[in-house]
Amino acid sequence: GAGVSQSPSNKVTEKGKDVELRCDPISGHTALYWYRQSLGQGLEFLIYFQGNSAPDKSGLPSDRFSAERTGGSVSTLTIQRTQQEDSAVYLCASSSVGGANYGYTFGSGTRLTVV
Amino acid sequence: AQRVTQPEKLLSVFKGAPVELKCNYSYSGSPELFWYVQYSRQRLQLLLRHISRESIKGFTADLNKGETSFHLKKPFAQEEDSAMYYCALATNAGKSTFGDGTTLTVKP
Predict the structure, then answer these.
(1) Residue A36: its chain B contacts at CB < 8 A?
(2) Is residue A100 over pLDDT 70?
């Protein structure tokens, strides 16, 4: 595609429900990243996929968070039993040549609100 | 562990004045540094990379390894430069660490 596509753009969910956020990276980009942007905060790293390698999950804040990337393309971030502190903008980014060193292309994000 | 510090949350200048957004980093390896910008109601986008030594929209940034800094500068700010700016450090591990961002307001 022309850019990184994320869906939904907005999601309001009740506390305790599960949510799935989707990211469709730029075609051919081997690296895919999920970050979280909370109000007034910087970008918090969540997880990183590079090709067929095992993902770097070191940023996932709890075991309620998981992500997968199917076929080296589309990725889904799942948050189980959502809590109010999960409310944030979830950003997906992709990068070519395997790694962050060429800079990221970001999606427009999913704004998650847990009520 | 790597760290990026942007000491100013908010920065306000008048149109035509010089502007400098500060960024300091800590990293034991060889850093790759970036500036990203997010204009109102737009997605976050790459502004410039230190390795390219380029000037984008009149902005430049020089990596100073001695001071571990990568400050973003523009000699004459424009109103359309008003945005949130993030400094980021990429490592060989393949992911980037971002600062908390600086909101720049350019007043007419």
Answers:
(1) none
(2) no
